[in-house]
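hey can u check if this looks right to u? its 111 residues, i copy pasted from the old doc so theres a chance i mangled smth
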Amino acid sequence: MPFVTDFDQPLSIDVSHTGPDAVVTVAGEIDPHTAAPLTEALDELAGTDDLQRVVLDLSGVTFVDSSGLRVLLTARERFADRDVRFSLRSPSEPVRRLLEITDLLARLDVE
């Protein structure tokens, strides 16, 4: 079931859930003003019973700060607790650079 939102913030979130897999496509900036809607979308998915895999597509993300990193790490833990595979797909150059600087690129599942 698709879920699309745009909160007058520079972030859009599209959630598509088919069978045991979900893809969350994010575009724009992940910062203190936009982290909450992304967290809410991921929390809603975490409550899904038949979920086996969540892919967070970050190819359209132009900026991410520490609040965005917190969302990623919290989601990874939450899904791991439910035995759901959580991975990042195609992180944009700004996201990839931040993941490298913070040494998270090696700790997160990145496709």
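Residues 66-81 form the longest helix (16 residues).
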